[in-house]
Amino acid sequence: MIRNWWAPPVAAATVLSGVLAAPAAPAAADDEALPDDVGCHYSLSAPQLVQRANGDRAVRATLSPTTCNRPAAQTDVIVCLKSESGYNRCNKLPGWQTVEVVIPAVPAGGVFTATGKGCWQYILDSFTPGCRAVGPIEARV
Which domain of life does the protein's organism represent (predicted)? Predict the structure, then answer.
């Protein structure tokens, strides 16, 4: 049998991966009741009516990171927008970016709901991840 010198046998790779891979730390709960000194904070915009370049009407919502308590560092920012007709779309970006989501303004004059979630990781000590839910915010547009 010909083997590459750099490729460990399957059994050894399985054992090594079990030894080297530590169990994942439990993530902080998505809980709006998290203390203010935990993780990162975000600002969610209310759904607002916008006009696209082609003249179509749409609804837009954004989620922006605002602050992080040390040693937390942003990892993901997610915003979702849902119409009362059931149309739902989410958008996600990494790190310290404002993320936006835009959906068609259907039904016209309908109620739209924005929600968001921002996630972080403690980078200096435990590498423990966490997330904070934001919203919902409803608006008739």
Answer: Bacteria
Segment-wise mean pLDDT, segments of 10 residues, the chain, 141 residues: 37 32 35 75 97 92 93 93 94 94 91 97 85 96 90
Tally the domains of the chain. 1
CA distance 51 to 129: 37
**8 Å CB contact between 92 and 75:** no
Residue 134 sits in which domain range?
Answer: 42-140
Q: Whole-angstrom Cα distance, residue 60 to residue 45?
A: 9
122: domain CATH number is 2.60.40
Asked if residue 65 lies in contact with residue 44, where contact means CB atoms within 8 angstroms, the answer is no
Query: Using an 8 Å Cβ cutoff, are 118 and 131 in contact?
Result: yes
CA distance 23 to 17: 11
